[in-house]
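Reminder to self: tokens first, then the designed residues, so the page reads top to bottom the way the pipeline ran.
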């Protein structure tokens, strides 16, 4: 009998993706520096409350990214990464990457280019979606990571997590104005995802999703959120006092880039504990919507429709000019619309093509496995001949 999915965790996926969409509505719409430099002193003096609130909301999107990888680590540490799952993820990325590239050209949001076509056909290789590229690469490492996790001592696991925390969380803060230095020392999206996977797995080993840890979850979530908002307020305040835009521009530095922010990580772990310790009965409606979460990301954050979506369709470039509460309401309404439409698009795709996609993925996985066994056999023969 097919195992039912935990609807509390599926609901957490939905919330996480909603916050990621809201984050993108802010950074690619409401505070998109490509349209207006919001962080000049005159702009901040005129619209400081709204800008501060939008800066404060940025961390929730980073938290959402971290939650996705934590969940993967928690549930995959005792499971096997299946090749067919990787192919299915890749196929969805390919469909939306190429399909939305063609759509963007059709509506005049993007001019055709050979480079754009190649990137859309090979979106994982060319990182058309940074999250999916990092996630797929991490997923390919899961078999090796799980072998390490299940054989290493708790002290060794902790040491590796601490080293990755240093390179992926602390160093990007130290080198906030020189990100290449942090990258050179190991701070990449892929290593950050591996760190999150290890933390999720460690939560499983230590059985942290139990009611007695709810207080820990509350402290982590609310303490991190308050700490982040306080850091934004301090940096914005320094900018106003010194009349230097540098501090205002870097006010969200502790939210991190990608998923490596120290406060975003604390919030993600805390919320995961809080939601994970409140199980709810399996609900088909929740699980159905949650099945489209990654596709919601692929649809709304496609690089070729992103400017068209946030600026042409919703005109979010002017949201900072409105009163703060109206800006928040507008962003939330836009986020709901985008999330619902993207979910319906993906449900339609699954309803029409899911069987075909499953067959294609199963066939591809079989062919790859057969080819891999053939190559292993040939390699064994060559090695045998060389060692005679």
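Designed residues (388 positions):
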């Amino acid at each position: 009998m097919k195992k039912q999915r935990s609807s509390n965790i599926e609901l957490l996926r939905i919330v996480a993706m909603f916050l990621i969409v809201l984050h993108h509505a802010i950074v690619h719409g409401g505070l998109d520096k490509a349209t207006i430099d919001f962080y000049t002193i005159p702009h901040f003096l005129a619209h400081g409350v709204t800008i501060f609130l939008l800066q404060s909301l940025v961390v929730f999107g980073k938290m959402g990214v971290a939650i996705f990888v934590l969940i993967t680590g928690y549930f995959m540490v005792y499971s096997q990464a299946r090749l067919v799952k990787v192919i299915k993820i890749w196929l969805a990325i390919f469909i939306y990457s190429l399909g939305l590239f063609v759509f963007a050209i059709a509506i005049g949001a993007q001019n055709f280019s050979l480079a754009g076509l190649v990137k859309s056909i090979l979106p994982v290789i060319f990182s058309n979606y940074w999250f999916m590229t990092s996630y797929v690469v991490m997923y390919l490492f899961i078999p090796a990571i799980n072998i390490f996790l299940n054989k290493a001592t708790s002290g060794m696991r902790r040491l590796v997590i601490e080293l990755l925390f240093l390179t992926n969380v602390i160093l990007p803060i130290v080198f906030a104005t020189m990100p290449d230095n942090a990258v050179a020392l190991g701070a990449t999206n892929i290593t950050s995802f591996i760190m999150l996977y290890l933390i999720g797995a460690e939560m499983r080993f230590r059985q942290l999703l139990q009611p007695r840890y709810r207080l820990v979850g509350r402290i982590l979530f609310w303490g991190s959120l308050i700490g982040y908002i306080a850091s934004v307020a301090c940096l914005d305040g320094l900018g106003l006092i010194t009349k230097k835009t540098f501090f205002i521009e870097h006010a969200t530095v502790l939210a991190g880039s990608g998923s490596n922010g120290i406060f975003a990580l604390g919030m993600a772990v805390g919320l995961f504990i809080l939601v994970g310790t409140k199980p709810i009965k399996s609900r088909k409606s929740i699980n159905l919507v949650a099945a489209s979460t990654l596709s919601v990301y692929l649809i709304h954050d496609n690089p070729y429709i992103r400017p068209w979506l946030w600026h042409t369709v919703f005109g979010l470039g002017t949201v900072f000019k409105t009163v703060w509460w109206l800006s928040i309401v507008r962003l939330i309404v836009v986020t709901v619309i985008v999330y619902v439409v993207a979910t319906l698009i993906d449900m339609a795709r699954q309803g029409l093509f899911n069987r075909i996609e499953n067959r294609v993925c199963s066939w591809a996985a079989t062919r790859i496995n057969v080819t891999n066994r053939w190559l292993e056999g040939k390699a064994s023969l060559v090695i045998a001949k060389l060692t005679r």
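The chain has 15 helices and no strands.
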